[in-house]
Structure formats: C-alpha cells, structure tokens
User: Which sequence fits this backbone?
C-alpha cells in the first residue's frame, strides 16, 4: 500500500509540474475566416480541460459557431469559431490575454465569483442551494421566508425541469449588507426552506445547503439537477408545454474503443457548455468532438470514454446518456413568456413581485436575479399553473400592479425558431487519415481540398 501511495503521489505531482511548465496557450485569429474569430487553445491535458475552456468562453458571452476538439493523449487542442452576441467578429485586442488569464491559476477563483453574482466579494454574501419538487408559487414562498427573516436577495438563478426545481440564491443580512455567518440563524433559515420545499407531495425528497462564498452558478445548477435525477420521468408532474425534443444517439466505435454521441437540437446560447457539463458530471472524457451551430439547428458529435478508459458498455448506460443529455438541453430551454423587471432595488422586492405572480396564477419556470449597485435586473419566464401560455389580460394585470415601466414583456428569442435540417458532420475522417481535413479544421493548414 505504501509503494502504491508513493507512486500515486509522485505521478500526481509530475502531472502538476507538467501543467505548470505548459500553461494553456491561447491565440486569436481574426483573418482566416470572414464571419468568425478563431480562438485556439492548447495545453498539457488534464481532466476537465474542455469544460474549463468552454466555461471561460461562455462567461465572456462569446457565441460558439463551430468547434473542433482533440485531446487523445497528453495534450489537448481546441479550436473555436466565435462571434460576439450580435453575430460579429471580435474587435477587442485583449481577448487572448483575458482568456489566458482566466484559464490560469489566478483566474479560477475570480472567474466563478464574477459570473455568479453581482457583488464585489464572495465573502460579502451567503450562498443557499435548493432542490425539490416544483409547484406553482414555490418561488414566492422561498423569497417570502427569506424576506421575513431579514435577508436580502442580491442574486439568484432558478431552473425547473421535469417537475424538479434547482436554485442558487445569494443573500446578505438586511441590516449590515454582509454575509450571514451566525450558525443558529443559518440553521433556522435552512430548516424553514426545507419545510417549504418538501410540501406534502415531494416523494423524492428536497435538499438545502448553506455556505459562505461563491460558486459558478450555472455549473452548480447542472450538478444539482443531475444529482436530483431530473432526467428521470416523474408521473406526478404537471402537464406542461412540450419542448422540441433533442435528438440524441449513442453508438459504438468499436475499432477505436470510443462511444460516439450525437446531439442535434435547436441552437441557443450556452448549448455546448450545458452538454459538456453533463458529460463531465457523468464521468466521461471527451477525446474528440465536432460542433456546428451556424443555423437554427446545432449538431454536436463527441467521441467519449468513461474515466476508466472504457466505452459505454450496456443498453442501460446508453439510455442514461441519452436521457441525461436531453435533460441538459431542456433545463435551460425557457418555457413561457419572458418578463424583465428593471428598477430601483429594495428590501423585499422579490417577495412582493413573486407574490403578485402567484396571486395572478402565474408559475415561474426559470428566473435570473441580479443586483447592480442600486438597480435590480431580474428576468422571469412565466406560464399559467398548468404550464400553458399566459393570457394577455393576465400579463397586463400583473404589469399594472407592479408597474408598466418596471415590468416589461419580451418574447424569448429562441422560442419561435423552427428547426431546419443541417448537414451532419462526422469525426470519422480523423481516423481514416491523420487528417489533413482535421488539421484544416484546427486552423493548422491554410486550405483543404
């Protein structure tokens, strides 16, 4: 045992040394492609490298139009064709430097904090994580409990899927504006929230967790919903508007020892991030991937193995991969009408607004809450209690009560997009030849014919 432990430690330290000697190298090419900017990242390989890079690009609000990924060995190389949020090539000269700093050791702690909550220090707020059975009015009850016990919500994100709810909420003490550290007070808050979450119908169980500090909110929400098994069917769930179902196939590539996963669905921002998060949470390693998202439909192809080096080996495991990726896509797919609330922040604002939603029969399917200075910037996606579209007169009644200039209606940018057939791209050529085409995709050659 001692020899094994010693060997493991030496091997682990050697890998760390290799990573320190070979930090990620980032290059930005704005000339090779007329419509997109090429971002190339290469470094010594380690578990989670792909997710880390995709997370950084997502946090910078870059839209990934195409991506070519290869990490079969001790080195990885990722090439991303990106635009800004408006579909334009990047104009900033310091993009490479910003990405490189974010991927380095100093950038990791700050990266999660900046994207998680609109406050300046992770030590200034308390994080509450909640999972449980979704139901109409749940969010209103959660915010009411927090407001009643003198807590101010400075940021929050709420996802719902398949009758389950997950939320990360950042709170401060109403009086001091700082993180809440009193263990008795935190225990009381946790107990009350757990009581609200459990209700009388949560057969699967609810969970709460409280900590001082920050996390990458979206990354954590994926982990929470996966742990809560939101990918399992729940026969007790309410009838809801059916989203277009993603098409996921899982096939064997026996001659190379891989499992090939194909995902096709309507494109939207952060789709790649969501898929890579889920594969990582399921303990799979992506060795090669091709991502195409240049139209209304996205195509993603992954060559994966389990962490132990084995491909998917059973029908049950294959079905689980399919269901989990479907869930990853649908968690963030917004259902309902988008309501944007922008105005002066105040204590109890969220409690009042969500109470008005509940009193008018609205159910929140997703929410993003942020405070910038003295301004509240909140987004809610709402349906009626059965998950159906809300009547116009109901929305107008809610706006009249909250304030017509404060609460605005905006149709979701992706809810009405129609999927179209796009060309299917395959990584098969990588293995048939050591692939001039793939080298071109990676941006290492000027032309391919």
Assistant:
């Amino acid at each position: 045992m001692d020899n094994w432990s010693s060997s493991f430690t030496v091997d682990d330290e050697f890998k760390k040394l290799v990573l320190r000697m070979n930090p990620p190298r980032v290059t930005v090419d704005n000339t090779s492609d007329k419509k997109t900017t090429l971002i190339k990242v290469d470094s010594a390989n380690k578990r989670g490298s792909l997710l880390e890079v995709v997370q950084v690009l997502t946090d910078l609000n870059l839209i990934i139009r195409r991506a070519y990924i290869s990490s079969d060995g001790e080195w990885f190389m990722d090439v991303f064709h990106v635009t800004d949020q408006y579909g334009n090539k990047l104009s900033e000269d310091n993009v490479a430097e910003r990405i490189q700093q974010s991927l380095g050791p100093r950038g990791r702690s700050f990266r999660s904090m900046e994207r998680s909550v609109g406050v300046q220090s992770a030590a200034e707020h308390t994080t509450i994580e909640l999972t449980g059975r979704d139901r109409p009015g749940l969010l209103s009850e959660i915010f009411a409990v927090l407001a009643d016990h003198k807590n101010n919500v400075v940021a929050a994100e709420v996802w719902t899927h398949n009758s389950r709810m997950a939320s990360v909420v950042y709170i401060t003490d109403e009086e001091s504006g700082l993180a809440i550290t009193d263990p008795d007070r935190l225990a009381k808050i946790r107990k009350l929230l757990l009581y609200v979450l459990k209700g009388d119908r949560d057969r699967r169980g609810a969970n709460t967790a409280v900590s001082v500090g920050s996390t990458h909110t979206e990354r954590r929400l994926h982990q929470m919903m996966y742990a809560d098994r939101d990918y399992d069917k729940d026969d007790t769930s309410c009838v809801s508007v059916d989203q277009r179902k993603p098409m996921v196939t899982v096939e064997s590539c026996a001659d190379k020892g891989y499992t090939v996963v194909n995902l096709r669905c309507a494109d939207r921002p952060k789709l790649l991030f969501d898929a890579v998060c889920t594969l990582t949470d399921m303990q799979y390693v992506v060795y090669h991937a091709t991502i195409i998202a240049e139209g209304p439909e996205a195509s993603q192809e992954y060559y994966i193995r389990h962490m132990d080096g084995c491909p998917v080996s059973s029908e049950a495991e294959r079905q689980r991969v399919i269901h989990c990726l479907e869930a990853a896509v649908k968690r963030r797919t917004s259902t309902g009408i988008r309501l944007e609330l922008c105005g002066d922040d105040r204590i109890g604002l969220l409690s009042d607004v969500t109470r008005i939603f509940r009193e008018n029969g609205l159910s929140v399917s997703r929410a993003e809450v942020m405070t910038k200075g003295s301004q509240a910037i909140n987004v809610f996606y709402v349906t009626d209690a059965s998950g159906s579209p809300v009547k116009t007169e109901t929305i107008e009644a809610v706006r009249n009560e909250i304030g017509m200039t404060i609460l605005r209606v905006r149709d979701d940018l992706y809810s009405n997009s129609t999927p179209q057939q796009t060309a299917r791209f395959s990584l098969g050529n990588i293995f048939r030849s050591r692939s001039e085409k793939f080298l071109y995709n990676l941006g290492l050659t000027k032309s391919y014919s």
Observations:
- The chain has three domains: 10-111, 126-231+334-410, 247-331.
